[in-house]
Backbone:
């Protein structure tokens, strides 16, 4: 019972915060979207389960009134060529500028392990789908791109050429199309569903944008979920940073005791909570408003 009361109290605090910023972002809806995709099982790049995930994402997005791009390409991996697909949803604003919110939706290929990636690959994909639901009913100043990256995970040891395939591809594509100059900010989310949410101050990120997120969280009374701890993580924001885009990575990189659930079969849906999605969604919608 004590646990239930704690959840109810937390929910009340969040509702108060949500009233100022993001009235309609629902953490439980984000968790539900995540559940649907986790149910497809392990979802590595090029797998039939990831194709099902793509179909599910596209079917959901078709109801949201956004422009949808399937950005398909062949990645050269240590295991040979792999077909990959980024999914991009564009919600149109009026300013001529754009903000991107991104995350990966595939799971790491771990042969012999039933790795369903609820937090790592699932949470970011479900979070973005809930964001799409909210944005579909919003009047926007800037365009908002929601991007589901394929191929974030490395096939062998992480290296400059193995990992973040989808974001490297899209940063290059947007650069050659002349679209990068329109992007005011890119906010990447990864592993943000953990019940025990603690977001790292990721040190590759643009410091001004990172400060904006931390200040906004503090103003909303949600500062305790955004840590004072710093650490550098290579993630899907990096290819955009390298091309001069302001970008931040929001990642909880402490999952289970000593991060021991990360990349294991213990990364399951019971480790996630609606409240954690609610915290990140509430903060990001307010950050979007401030970036107008
Ligand atoms: Zn991972």
Residues:
């Amino acid at each position: 019972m004590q646990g239930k009361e704690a959840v109810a109290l937390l929910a009340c605090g969040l509702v108060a915060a949500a009233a100022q910023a993001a009235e309609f972002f629902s953490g439980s809806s984000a968790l539900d979207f995540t559940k649907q995709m986790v149910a497809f099982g392990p979802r590595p790049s090029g797998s039939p389960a990831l194709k099902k995930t793509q179909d599910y994402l596209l079917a959901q997005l078709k109801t949201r009134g956004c422009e949808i791009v399937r950005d398909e390409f062949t990645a050269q991996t240590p295991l040979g060529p792999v077909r990959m697909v980024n999914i991009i949803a564009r919600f149109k604003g009026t300013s001529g500028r754009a903000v991107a919110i991104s995350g990966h939706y595939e799971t790491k290929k771990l042969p012999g392990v039933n790795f369903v990636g609820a937090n790592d690959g699932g949470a970011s994909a479900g979070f973005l789908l809930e964001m799409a639901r909210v944005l579909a009913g919003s009047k926007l100043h800037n365009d908002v791109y929601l991007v589901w990256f394929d191929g974030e995970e490395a096939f062998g040891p992480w290296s400059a050429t193995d990992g973040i395939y989808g974001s490297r591809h899209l940063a290059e594509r947007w650069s050659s199309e002349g679209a990068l100059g329109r992007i005011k900010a890119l906010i990447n989310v990864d592993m943000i569903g953990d019940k025990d949410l603690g977001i790292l101050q990721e040190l590759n990120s643009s410091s001004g944008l990172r400060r904006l997120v931390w200040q906004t969280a503090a103003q909303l009374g949600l500062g305790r979920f955004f840590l004072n701890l710093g650490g550098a993580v290579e993630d899907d924001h990096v290819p955009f940073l390298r091309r001069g885009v302001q970008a931040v990575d929001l990642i909880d990189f402490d999952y289970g005791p000593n991060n021991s659930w990360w990349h294991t079969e213990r990364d399951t849906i019971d480790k996630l909570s609606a409240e954690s999605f609610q915290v990140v969604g509430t903060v990001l919608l307010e950050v979007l408003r401030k970036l107008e």
Q: What stands out?
A: Residues 1-9, 15-22 have pLDDT under 50 and may be disordered.
